[in-house]
Amino acid sequence: MPFKVQIAKIENELNKYFPKPEYYDSISDYSNQDVTGVPAPGAAFYSPSSTYLYLERNSRPSGLGYEFLARVADKDPLVSSIINTRMNQVILFARPKLLLNKEEKLSYSIFPIESDSIKDSEKKIIKKLELMLHTTGFYPKPRDSFSTFLKKIIRDRFRYDQINFEVVHDDKGRPVEFYAIDASTIRLNNEYVPQTHTFDYSKYTFQLLNSEINSYFSYQDMAFGVFFPKTDVENYGYGMPEIEQVFTLLSAKIYAEEFNKKFFIQGMGKGFLFAKKSLFTRSKMLALQEELRNTAVGYMNAHKIPIISAPEIDDMKYVQLDRAQKDIEFSRYLEYLINLICGVFQMDPSEVNFQSRSSMGGVVQTESSYQTRIKFSKDKGLKPLLNFLEDIINQYIIFPLTDQKFMFKFVGLEEMTEKERIDKIRTEVTNWKTLNEVRKELGLPDIEGGEVVLSPTFVQSKMMGGMGGGAGMPTGGEEEESPEGEGGENEEDLSPEDRDEYSKRFKQQLDNELAGKGEEGESEEEGSEPESGSEDIWKV
């Protein structure tokens, strides 16, 4: 297809499914000084201090700059493992739902906001939006895939607690493409409009290259998001990354690892050699030292054995030092640091292949399986990250494109396994839902006698209520006889043993009726009764 024809086709589809949006039409009015009657806060959000321009244009408000944060994230093995793990977990959701097969569950999709069901006319819009996100734009040109886009912004999220991507709009103001941008080059402009107590949205952010402003961006053209916002007036709207929060812990870990490394290079041996001074002349002492150096000393003079003269001993004596306890203390100290660092990053240490004695601590200590610990960790760290990405993609791409009629969501994280689904159904049907209610949710037709909760207590109370009137629960329009053949017995006439036997036989009969695969008459023609069992109660 010729390029111009393809572009014309795309523009026709955009005009058909996404007419000119009005989402950002009024945002420029809030920076117009002539606008009156617009509600606005009276408090200041940022401090107009003397260091304002320096902090705004050259560095971050904290003492840790972008370059330092990036170096720690890339060079420290623990931090790098945490970032890579979270990044790999998120990109499992980077494929649209329409491209998945039945076995795959993790994906993203688009949902209408104003209704729970999806109309036929909305299915085409959803398909266009999902494919647009998958290719990061409508127009066919070389761009990152959605998976690559997520990898880039997630890495910046953990490095700087700041993500930025440029949104390209067409002449009608519709978002048609988006590109991940190096967050270390984007700064907030923070220029107040005093009359409205708002910012200049036409120059909301700018890109800084070589300490010079490269270009300004409006609010809708450059996405700016932080995961850990602060109300601190000296923070100027920037985030607080986990690396900054664990800076002292990372320093302690580096020192501990350096100490351990130095031991293998420059460390002393595990004991002392005590010798009686009168037994050795200077030449013999030097010979002994040379012999020990050649046989017992490691690389760069490590693990040398000190020789100490001791007049009170008779001959020569080697005293072994017990370093086992020190080694245990060192190991526990490193484990303590790693657990705290992983805790700030909201990740279980076992997710980065660090097995510790305390990895079963906290709330998950009552659970016994590894999968439960991982699920608990993902609930703390992965789900909030996915929600954060959903919000910023909706705010800058989906809402402006659809005038807030559709929303983007990651799906599949809460998907149950088949066993969990059956257990859930069994719990519902034996506690608070009737059999026909469950069948309706599964897309199955109602069955006769299915308006009952399969709870032994409920069934027994229902049965006893029917006995008082001389009949049990109706089946097939006929009166059901009691197990003893007497439908008019009262509850008081039965002994506890008879009551239990009656309940057991009634429940067995009910299960047999509800477990059949055809009508009651069909079962009679076959001459055999259907098998009983609560697993088959929702089958026809």
Give, in spatial order, the strands making up the sheet with the most strands. Answer: 3-2-9
- The helix fraction, in percent, is 40-55%
Q: Note poorly predicted spans.
A: 360-368, 469-489, 517-540
Structural class by sheet pairing and helices: alpha+beta
SSE sequence, one letter per element: HHHHEHHEEEEEEEEHHEHEEHHEHHHHH
Query: Radius of gyration from the CA trace?
Result: 36 Å
Number of helices: 16
Q: What is the average per-residue confidence, as pLDDT, rounded to a whole number?
A: 74
Task: Give the topology.
Elements: H1 3-17, H2 52-58, H3 66-75, H4 77-91, E1 107-112, H5 120-134, H6 146-160, E2 163-169, E3 175-181, E4 186-188, E5 192-193, E6 198-199, E7 205-209, E8 212-217, E9 222-225, H7 242-245, H8 247-266, E10 271-275, H9 282-296, E11 307-309, E12 316-320, H10 324-344, H11 370-402, E13 406-411, H12 418-429, H13 435-441, H14 456-468, H15 496-514, H16 520-526
Parallel strand pairs: 10-11
Antiparallel strand pairs: 1-13, 2-3, 2-9, 4-7, 5-6, 7-8, 10-12
Helix pairs in contact: 3-4, 4-6, 8-10
Structure characterization notes:
The protein has 540 residues and is of the alpha+beta class. 42% of the residues lie in helices and 11% in strands. It contains 16 helices and 13 strands. The strands form five sheets. The protein has a three-stranded antiparallel β-sheet. It has a three-stranded antiparallel β-sheet with strand order 4-7-8, covered by helices on one side. Strands 11-10-12 form a three-stranded mixed β-sheet, with no helix packed on it. Strand 5 and strand 6 (198-199) form a beta hairpin. The radius of gyration is 36 Å and the shape is flat.
